[in-house]
Amino acid sequence: MKKYLTLAVNAAFLTTWSAISFAQSDAPYTEGTVWNVTLVKAKYGMTDEYLKGLAKTFKGGLDEAKKQGLVLDYKILIGDAANPQDFDILLMVESKNMAALDNAREKFDPIARKIEGAPDQQRATATKRLEIREIMGSKLMREITLK
To answer: How many structural domains are present in the chain?
Structure first.
């Protein structure tokens, strides 16, 4: 009887496992990488000044993060604002998946110290940026591929 019960439990487990393994999502897409997108509005006449700052901090930090395998890629898109309340710069950072964002401070704070200096220097740089740009919003979005 014990042997029969063990066989029955194993058969049930294998049947369930097979069904789960072969189940597919009904979603019309497959999930890809994750993008953190920041919408920025440069103040009038300050776009070049802001981009010069990004060349050191944003680019410098993310080049190092790419080298360490913390991010896959990054992009900056620039264009005219559609209206006075619209953004004109998009900052995009690509990560492998949501899990790659776990413990972000632990991973990125040493890079920020290396690129931008001590926390006091980082705050001073961030405060100066308030004079030349406004962050309109930020989103975490997943890239998808349609089936």
So the answer is: 1
Taking the C-alpha atoms of residue 76 and residue 92, their distance in angstroms, rounded to an integer, is: 6
Least Cα distance to 112 among 53, 72, 71, 57 occurs for 57
Domain limits at 54? 29-146
The encoded tokens of residue 45 equal: 């006449």
Run of H or E including 52: helix 47-56
Question: How many residues can be counted in the chain?
Answer: 147
Digit-coded pLDDT (tens) for 87-114? 999 999 999 999 999 999 999 999 999 9
**27, 140 in Cβ contact below 8 A?**
no
pTM score, two decimals? 0.81
For residues 22 and 15, what is the distance between their CA atoms, to the nearest angstrom? 11
